[in-house]
Amino acid sequence: PSEYDYDFISEGYAFTPGVFVGGTYEINDAISFGLGGRWVMNRLIATSTLDNIQVAPDGSEDFVNYVNYLDGIATNEPGINDQLRNEINNIWIPAIEGAQVDIDVTQTAHGFTPIFSLNLKFSEKLNLALRYEHRTKMTYTIKVNDGKDGSGLYSEDNDSTRADLPGFLSMGVAYKLTDFLKFHAGSRLLFDKAVNWNGREQY
């Protein structure tokens, strides 16, 4: 026996083109820097259907126990047990089983990323490079197709959905040990606390 059953189909597509423009300047043989920017657009397309929902189709014992639990809460109200059971069997379950949830939405956002870089050549053997990408502010607009909003999950009136791309600072170092052997290492610091993910960044 199963507690519930349903049919679910979901598809999603993401399209993220971008354009980068930048330049570099060499101050001297040891120091050079770069400035640039990247424009990025993100389009997300999501479709899904949830239907053929069945609650406790085989008389699941767990579901029966849950009904008895609800009955137990109302023991001080004479007659409410039968009423509650009647509502569950004749209203709640048919409403759930008869439901179909459809989603067909397109979300679009674009933003600009400032980029800075610095290269330090300490010697013929030692080189250090730094790169900083600023946070990209991404505010998504939502288009609901054919009224398929996931039973109110999505709304075209909500134009403030944020999902920023976090900024980061990366560093790389290279050291020439011999003419045939070089050592490379790198790291990245992600500034994910400075983004706006509609409150999700707090978790």
Would you mind describing this structure in some detail?
This protein is α+β, with helices and mostly antiparallel strands. The chain has 2 helices and 9 strands, in the order E-E-E-H-H-E-E-E-E-E-E. The longest helix is centred in the middle third of the chain and has 18 residues, at 80-97.
Low-confidence stretches: none
**What order do the SSEs take from the amino end to the carboxyl end, as H and E?**
EEEHHEEEEEE
Distance between the termini: 37 Å
| Biggest sheet statistics | 9 strands, antiparallel
- Beta-strand percent range: over 45%
Overall mean pLDDT:
83
- What general form does the structure show? elongated
- Multimerization status: single chain
Number of helices: 2
Supply the helix-strand structural class: alpha+beta
User: What value does the Rg take, in angstroms?
Assistant: 29 Å
Helix fraction?
A: 10-25%
DSSP E strands, number: 9
Question: How is the secondary structure organized here?
Answer:
Blueprint: E1 4-15, E2 18-26, E3 31-55, H1 61-73, H2 80-97, E4 101-121, E5 126-133, E6 139-149, E7 161-162, E8 167-176, E9 182-191
Antiparallel strand pairs: 1-3, 2-3, 3-4, 4-5, 4-6, 5-8, 6-7, 8-9
Helix pairs in contact: 1-2
Structure keywords:
single chain, 203 residues, alpha+beta, nine-stranded antiparallel sheet, 2 helices, elongated
Short précis:
The chain has helices at residues 61-73, 80-97, and strands at residues 4-15, 18-26, 31-55, 101-121, 126-133, 139-149, 161-162, 167-176, 182-191. The chain is α+β, with helices and mostly antiparallel strands.
